[in-house]
Amino acid sequence: MNGTAELYLSRPVGRSRGRPAFSAKHRRRRRTARRATVPRRDRRGLAPLELVIALPLLLFLMALMINFGTASAWRIRELATARQTVWASRYPRSLQAVPRPAYWPANAQLGVGGDPDATTLQDPRVDLPVMRGPFVGDFAVNRDLFDPGRHLRNGHAALTRDFPLLASLGPYRMDTETELLDNRWEFSRTGMSGNGDHRIPAIYSLPTAPPGYSLAYVQAARAILAMPRRDDLRVLDRDDEFAAYNARFGWGGGSPDFHPWLQRFCSLDRQTAQERVDSLIERIAGVRGGPGQAHVPSLAEQMARAFRDLYDRVIRELQNQLNAAPPPPPGQTISIQNEIADLQRKIDTLNAFLAILQNHGR
Known about the structure:
Blueprint: H1 24-37, H2 46-88, E1 109-114, H3 129-132, E2 135-136, E3 139-141, E4 152-162, E5 171-181, H4 200-203, E6 204-205, H5 211-225, H6 240-249, H7 270-285, H8 299-322, H9 330-357
Helix pairs in contact: 8-9
């Protein structure tokens, strides 16, 4: 029998009329069908249990996120500290004079040092013979002087801290380094003593003068220093009157420098050098001037005018003292008037001397 036909059997004796009899197999099937259609209630209370089981994992992930955020923040601070350290050590700054960052712990490290030259900065576009050599004509070039990779500075910072959570992980350490190219090509780094020194001898290896020339130069310098009337030349840059009046009236400054300097130039042309020397002689001896030629005051004329202007300025200061309110005492008034008269005589002498100098010169 198949289908539902097998479920209907002959009615046993004594059973209620109108109710079919079912076999044991049929009853089992009906119970199975009833379980499938009725909702199951055997999973009640599992949600809190699952939360209790998953909560440690969620807390562990949250702790890892906090630890990662904290370490990232300190990483940024460490990089900022390393950069500040290397910049604070550049001339004219000093790392000892720059305050330590307030956010940087006292037990954390920071410092600065030098790195090997940066060879990767070599660029053929700036690697020109005139500055990098190896030769310009017969002159050897100091190739290292203008090397773009020299004087590389290194700033570093190091930090060891504990994680804010999950202390069982132990401490973590971070090290950061940053580099700064600090080649400023200053005169002090090129072996020169001042900013006004000639650069050519520092860049090129120039031929040396014969020993006889060097000896003649030394002898001439010694002769100038040992000349008998060298003190008479003090007026050229260390005159006593200028210094005394400046201090007396509070003008400030010192004595003017009357030395006729040779204008700076750099040339191997003999004619150019001769022209500069002739110009120096004209500024010493003076040029009378005339049609088509300007008058060039001689050194004597320049000095006479400077002293005349000095005495005239002193007279104005003394006259202001005489006209002050209240006026000076009678004795001091007479002294001031005598000084003014003496200075006026000097001015008259200088004016007469300047009249003579008008026709003096080449």
